[in-house]
Amino acid sequence: MSTVVTTPPSPVEAQVERRSRYRRTALLALAGFVLLCLVRVISGADELTSSGTLTVTLTATMPIAMCGLGGLWSERAGVVNIGLEGMMIMGTLGAGYFGFHYGVWVGVLGATAFGLLGGALHALATVVFGVDHIVSGVAINLIALGVAGFLAEAWFSDLEGGGPTQSPPLPTPPVINLPFISDPMNTLENKHWFLISDLAGVVEMFTKNLSSLVLIGLVLIFGTTWALWKTRFGLRLRSCGEAPSAAETLGVNVYRYKFVAVLISGAMAGFGGALLSMVSVSGFQVGQTNGRGYIGLAAMIFGNWRPVGMFLGSTLFGYTQALPFREGTVSLHGLLLLVAAILVAFALWQFFRGSKAQAATTLVFGVLFLLWFLVTDVVPREFTTMAPYVTTLLVLAFASQRLRMPAADGQIYRKGSAG
Description:
By secondary structure, this protein is mainly alpha-helical. The protein has 2 domains: 45-181 and 209-323, ABC transporter involved in vitamin B12 uptake, BtuC, CATH 1.10.3470; 328-404. Helix content is 72%, strand content 1%. It has 16 helices and 2 strands. It has a two-stranded antiparallel sheet. α6 (179-189) runs antiparallel to α7 (196-207).
């Protein structure tokens, strides 16, 4: 009996593969945007790609993306972090208290520190004491919800504009305005030309009233790509999530890297809480995360545990949250055509890959969405609140076939297990 020996790819081959993956991701994002522009023209729902919609989308995306980024740091080191929701709750609380009393930047630091505290608790439970990762994460979510409710009543009840479930209005972070760019782009956008006006809206989004916290979040996303895939630190951290026993034999302190990764995870989720309390709305409210930590986790999975893919997934969820604020049900009705087109295209891709049964199922859903678009003028208002969660289910259902999680993700590690 013969055996086939496989060798790992060389650094050059790995680099070529990464560049090819980046090109595919960029082409996929571009194709999706062009398709959205085409749907905008066909449906007449100009708000689908307006700068206003895109700005609200970016604002709704960043808290989700920060939670997804936190989950990525943790799971790349092999620790599942279901507690992102709780860490984000702590972040909103920290932003509410410190932001009101000490200003914007101390509020951001306070939110990050509160999220980091949740990460430290999760790291202590999972890395040091070997508690099941899911159990620890659920416990943190429950603890954070109770602590936030208790401290909100103690901290904000007697403040003017505050109450037992909310903080007073918080100061607004500085914004970036480049009118010499945004004004011409606005003029071009209002002409409603196919693709050209849509691209002008994208440029205007980044040059008019762009929150400084949103810009920091974008830097963190691309900085994570560099840190995890371009540095020795990142290589060692990822090795802890793929083969911790092998990493230990090479002298890597697996406990230290896992602990640091979960601390960073909590800090990212806390920063997402600051974005939610200071940018999305102006103030802390009990329950304002509304499941965004879980959606961030879903975005990370959709992105195949990679920062750029995670950000695209977060943008998809943020977009479905933003549309109800821009012409409401009219925009969502145009979105039905987009969903139908994507499902039909995905069905064709599955068919040519040989998955005929899956292609048929996907095609049926695509046809149903198309019929829904053709026989109605608007979608029910109740669907606007369901859209982000329905999107989460659909994305995970269709993306699950190509996912590869870190090999040791969620496993309990004990020092010396390498034998």
